[in-house]
Amino acid sequence: MLIGIAYDLKAEFAALAAARPNAPDDLLEEFDSPVTVEGLEAALLSGGHRVLRLGGGRALVRELLDCPVDLVFNIAEGFGSRSREAHVPAVCEMLGIAYTHSDPLTCAATLDKAVTKHLVAAAGIPTAPFAVIDDARQVETCALEFPLFAKPLFEGSSIGIRDGARCDNRADLDRRVRKILGDYNQPALVEEFLPGAEVTVGILGTGSSARILGAMEVVPLTESREDFVYSLDLKRDVNFHERIEYVVPPRLSPALVARIEEISLAAYRALSCRDVGRVDLRLGRDGEPKFMEINPLPGLKPGWSDMAVLAGKAGMKYDRMILEIVESAALRLGLAR
Q1: CATH for 129-192 (2.60.40.1930, 3.40.50.300, 3.30.1490.20, 3.30.160.60)
Q2: Which of 17, 54, 172, 242 is most buried, by CB atoms within 10 Å?
Q3: What pLDDT, in 10s, does the model give residues 269-291?
């Protein structure tokens, strides 16, 4: 097949960041590097496909109009709204072009963390009590039990999840909420802090054919599990691998791992995710796993992104994982492979 890669590079948004000198330093964190695009291209070529780099935004639309492809491999995050991750799949549907990953509705719903949590809770999936705060004055009436965790309502790639995200008292929460409202120009999602083990689960496939790729525990090495925050500051630390360890399978009981995988697959299906996704969970105060969020466009940077690391530790090579995403899309779309 001729496969076009839809992507947004950090370098292409540099001018945007420069025009906002007071913007947070993680403004462009969601966007990819050329390394990711090169890794995807190599993986697709290894499967015998031809590859066209489409880019994102207006450039992608022009490319698709000039050179329709058999399939778009979509990792584009979009920009400018809480529905930005739905931009590329919506364009593909408008033009009648097949694409990988989830549809516009799922991509939009899952970026808004409160919408996601309402949907999974309605499906009977356990998640921490939460509130959406769009005015700092609401902090005074927040009835959730401390400690709490605060993050931007519709961001990904750990944007806004900094070392101060855990709030032990109302003063902490007030500072954090004001920071989110001011820096990210969006409400804050506030939820009761989950003190147990953190696990991320990779899933491949669609609907009844969806299956667990693997579950990976994120183990803190320099602080207690009860205080641990898997923050962007930690991920940027040059001593990153001295502070955490990725463990596959998790160092938890087989029954608990099975329950984590069951919840993850249920959330994935309840949200109608397709082809690939990653679910983040953490054990609550009762020791039971709680859904935190889901990413239908998980990072795919070779050797770095959680999904790529998880796959490698689960015994699947990077190229094979990418080709399985394509095969999942081809199967549900009835495309020749």
Answers
A1: 3.30.1490.20
A2: 54
A3: 999 999 999 999 999 999 999 99
Strands of the 289-295 sheet, one edge to the other = 244-247, 211-220, 198-204, 276-283, 289-295
Report the DSSP pairing between strands 289-295 and 276-283: antiparallel
SS3 category, 292: strand
Yes or no: say if 281 and 249 are a contact pair by the CB < 8 Å rule. Answer: no
Q: Cα(first)–Cα(last) distance of the chain, in Å?
A: 7
**CATH code of the region 2-110:** 3.40.50.20
Share of the chain above pLDDT 90, in %: 80
| Cα separations in angstroms, 174 against 140, 164, 185, 190, 230 | 8, 11, 16, 11, 21
Q: Report the distance separating Cα 35 and Cα 330, nearest Å.
A: 25
Q: Residue 15, Cβ neighbours under 10 Å: how many?
A: 8
Q: Cα(310)–Cα(32) distance, rounded to whole angstroms?
A: 19
Joined together, the tokens standing for residue 16 give: 């945007």
| CATH match of 195-333 with 3.30.470.20 | yes
CB 133 within 8 A of CB 142: yes
Domain ranges of the chain: 2-110, 129-192, 195-333
Which residue is associated with the tokens 């029954």?
255
> 276: helix, coil or strand?
strand
Q: pLDDT tens-digit profile of 129-181? A: 999 999 999 999 999 999 999 999 999 878 889 888 999 999 999 999 999 99
